[in-house]
Amino acid sequence: MSDRDPVFTSKLWTNFFTLAGVKLRLNSAFRSQTDGQSEVTNSILGIYLRCLAVDRPCSWLHWLPWAEYYYNSYQSALQATPFQVVYGRLPLTLLSYEPRVARVFALDRQL
Question: What does residue 45 show for φ and ψ, rounded to 5 degrees?
Fold first, then answer.
């Protein structure tokens, strides 16, 4: 599913998708309801970002990787994680961390 970006509607890409056996479905930027799954995904990510950046709404970009990581948890509809579906493997797990274990102060502060 794609918007009508010229990149995807060019003859080169149209032919590439055909050769790859991909059926390209185009929607418009103002009709996101044509792709319900993307609409739901964007809504969920928006909720995650609001929760993560509630005290500093302008920092949402900083939290985007965390929202993506959390979204990639197990999905009952897929019987897998979205990460598994896309990459064929589980995402790396986060290790627990105890303060002042890192030898570099900047790393300790970041973790």
Answer: -65, -35
Walking along the chain (111 residues) 10 residues at a time, the average pLDDT comes out as 65 77 70 65 86 87 85 83 84 75 80 71
Do residues 41 and 49 make contact, with C-beta atoms less than 8 angstroms apart? Answer: no
Distances (CA, A) of 8 to 21, 23, 26: 15, 12, 9
C-alpha–C-alpha distance, residues 37 and 62, integer Å: 24
d(CA 28, CA 4): 6
Domain boundaries, the chain: 1-34, 36-110
